[in-house]
Amino acid sequence: MSQLVVAALYQFVELPDYRKLRPALLDICSSNGTRGTLLLAEEGINGTIAGTREGIDAVRAWLDLDERFNRLEYKESLIDANRIPFHRMKVKLKKEIVTLGLPGISPKMKVGRYVQPEHWNELILDPETLVVDTRNSYEYQVGTFKGAVNPETKTFREFPNWASQNLDPTKHKKVAMFCTGGIRCEKSTSYLLDQGFEEVYHLRGGVLNYFDRVSPIDSTWEGECFVFDNRVTVNHKLEPGEFDQCHACRRPITEADKARLVFVKGVQCHHCVDEHSDKQKERFRMRQLQIELAEARGEPHIGIGVQEVKERQTMVRRLRELRKKSSASSDQRRLLVPRP
Q1: Is 103 part of a structural domain of the chain?
Q2: Do 88 and 177 belong to one domain?
Q3: Residue 46 belongs to what domain range?
Q4: Are residues 29 and 70 in the same domain?
Q5: Which position has the higher pLDDT, 309 or 121?
Q6: What gap in Å lies between CA 319 and CA 325, rounded to an integer?
Q7: Which of residues 279, 294, 309 is at a domain's end?
Q8: Does residue 203 share a domain with residue 119?
Q9: pLDDT tens, position by position, 77-92
Q10: What is the CATH number of the domain that holds 46?
Q11: The model's pTM
Q12: DSSP code string of 63-118
């Protein structure tokens, strides 16, 4: 069975010309058939792409031509060719490549101590170590390291507030943090160091690197790991996991969740049933209809943009108006027909 390569990458590096990099980066990715999302900001690059071996190698070679990317954190995994995790290729310009919301925090200036996956278990099993999962709460629920603390955040922006209320450098002498691929911990450890913590550690390459380099037999991980693509979750072998995804809120859901009365495919789940307006839900229904129509035709659904959504909504309104007019005309014709 043919396979595709999924490449996750990031690096904090000064890119004052990041806006100028976008066209060339998008071109090299698109021309080589890769799909995914890459973020560019003045502080660096971050993202995940998928494609053929040749396509991924071409993108990596292009990045290697720029000596600023010589310390790129880079991780690959393989997936079945019929399960490509992205619909399109996007290169976005951002203020931050991972959003903490504190401009003064820079991993280029200070960062926690990196711990290789092979030494991670020893660190987190130390009773003196406080293990903190820096990911969002819904990611934690899918799986985490044994004994890890859940900050119960909805977004990474909430982490500094949680840390300021729950962590104390005079009490928590040794703090170990982890995330999916390592990038969030670059900023979270930098933040803690800025707050006066001294022994701050983080897992090099994140959970995905741990899965790759530590055997399931020796693993202290419990559950699966949420990933931000169509695989939804991966197991310890980096294979697609057992979770599906609500396409309204992007949270992971189980088969039991889909059996709940509130679940409407593509529109809402028990997590987000009260989070979206009726107008938003109508838009979600339209999107789900387009997905199902594409599947019925045997075509891939690559997603639609805001402008196309508006055009289709206008078309639906016009069709409804035409039907009303047609119905009214029929009623008038019936009235004009002479009775026998």
Answers
A1: no
A2: no
A3: 3-93
A4: yes
A5: 121
A6: 10
A7: 294
A8: yes
A9: 888 877 778 889 999 9
A10: 3.30.70.100
A11: 0.81
A12: HHTSGGGTT-EEEEEEEEGGG-S-SSEEEEE-S-SS--S-TT--TTT---EEE-HH
Q: Are residues 72 and 119 in the same domain?
A: no
Question: Is 333 part of any domain?
Answer: no
| Active-site annotation holder among 179, 225, 269, 272 | 179
**Residue 67 sits in the same domain as residue 32:** yes
Please, which residues bridge with residue 38 across strands?
A: 47, 91
Residue 309's pLDDT is what?
Answer: 36
Q: What is the pLDDT of residue 313?
A: 46
Helix (H, G, I), strand (E, B) or coil at 62: helix
179 classed as catalytic: yes
Residues 148 and 190: their CA atoms lie apart, in Å, by 20
Place of tokens 């959504």: 309
**Radius of gyration over alpha carbons of the chain, in Å?**
24
Given a contact cutoff of 8 angstroms between Cβ atoms, the answer to whether 262 and 273 are in contact is yes
Q: What's the domain count of the chain?
A: 3
Residue 135 within a domain: yes
Q: According to the model, what pLDDT value does residue 308 have?
A: 42
Q: Please, which residues have CB within 8 angstroms of residue 149's CB and are 6 or more apart in sequence?
A: 130, 131, 132, 133
Residues 6+ apart with CB under 8 A from 154: 136, 137
Q: What is the pLDDT of residue 203?
A: 98
Q: Is residue 329 part of a domain?
A: no
Tens digits of residue pLDDT in 326-340: 666 655 655 555 555
